[in-house]
Specification:
25% of the residues lie in helices and 33% in strands. It is built from eight helices and 16 strands. The structure holds adenosine-5'-triphosphate and magnesium ion (MG). One of its GO terms (biological process) is L-histidine biosynthetic process.
Length: 298
């Protein structure tokens, strides 16, 4: 049920990896808050914008039902929700990539085991909390594997004999290493994003959303911005775009005399490490170049 509200509501993770940085980003965007007694709400003191503190898994649902207009959540959670939503339902959209909470959803296998390339997963079992994203990647790559859905502690599934591989979030890789696992391939590069409800807003709220987005973008300086340039087969564009930590849609240019190829220029936020470049190369990208961005004006 949607209650008519004048004030904008932003859903933020209550505690966890994104909680603190999400709130400090809103503060850097000029918002100040006073906490409710039950600490589930932060009332905006200087703008008509309140914060709802929730579990990250609840954020896409809150946006879909219209209880919140905006949310800060990992792209992984948003993308999974989009793939598993009932057909015909409008999913929340990613408004801004926020440049923190970076991680990747990766396939991982047991150290010293028989599996060395993803194709060997055909006919095997893969444990994950992200069945939608995994099923999509397996279909694109023509691999038929059984998906074992687990809500947590995915990394111990191989040792328990529940699965032959896992598909889980990785940042440093320390959790994988502690469980004698290593990464095979990343299927999604993720970071925290500002997501928007699919419901249309009245003009006053729409104006608040635009204002908040502009302030957040202003607060994220060009610090950490990178321009990634590469060439690739045109057919690989969608798969490549999914792996880019992009701030906005990449520019795609035709190449003289090479109708099946494109040049891509993408403004990226956060780290673009060797692993990123290797994952892109595996998709057919070549001539990869990462440039620091000195100055930007939108
Ligand atoms: P909640 O109690 O809100 O449900 P959670 O345990 O599901 O929390 P966290 O572990 O706090 O979630 O992770 C939140 C988000 O942080 C993830 O969805 C992901 O986008 C990002 N993240 C960054 N690095 C990692 C990592 N190494 N492992 C898991 N998530 C990571
Ligand atoms: Mg969660």
């Amino acid at each position: 049920m949607t209650i008519a509200r004048d004030r904008l509501r932003v859903a933020v993770q209550k505690s966890g990896r994104l909680a603190e940085t999400s709130l400090s980003l809103l503060r850097r965007a000029g918002l100040s808050f006073r906490a409710s007694r039950d600490r589930l709400f932060l009332y905006g003191e200087n703008l008509p914008i309140d914060v709802l503190l929730v579990r990250d898994d609840d954020i896409p649902g809150l946006l879909m039902e219209g209880s919140c207009e905006l949310g800060i959540v990992g792209r992984n959670v948003l993308a999974e929700q989009r793939l598993t939503a009932l057909p015909g339902t409008d999913a929340p959209a990613e408004r801004l990539a926020l440049g923190f909470g970076g991680c990747r959803l990766s396939l991982a296998v047991t150290d010293g085991g028989p599996i060395t390339v993803p194709a060997q997963l055909d006919g095997l079992r893969i444990a994950t909390s992200y069945p939608g994203l995994l099923a999509d990647w397996l279909a694109v790559n023509g691999i038929r594997a059984e998906i074992v859905v687990l809500s947590g502690s995915v990394e111990i599934a191989p040792r328990l004999g529940k699965a032959d591989a896992i598909c889980d979030l990785v940042s440093s890789g320390a959790t994988l290493a502690a469980n004698q696992l290593h990464e095979l391939v990343a299927i999604l590069h993720s970071e925290a994003v500002l997501a928007a409800s699919p419901h249309p807003l009245g003009s006053a709220k729409a104006e608040q959303v635009e204002r908040l987005c502009a302030r957040i973008e202003g607060a994220q300086s060009s610090d950490g911005a990178r321009l990634l340039m590469l060439q690739a087969p045109r057919a690989a564009l969608a798969a490549i775009t999914r792996l880019l930590p992009v701030r906005e849609s990449p520019s795609v240019l035709s190449l003289d005399g090479l109708p099946d190829d494109i040049a891509v220029q993408a403004l990226c936020s956060g780290a673009l490490d060797w692993q990123h470049l290797e994952d892109l190369k595996r998709l057919g990208a070549r001539g990869l170049m990462v440039l620091n961005v000195e100055r930007m004006l939108a």
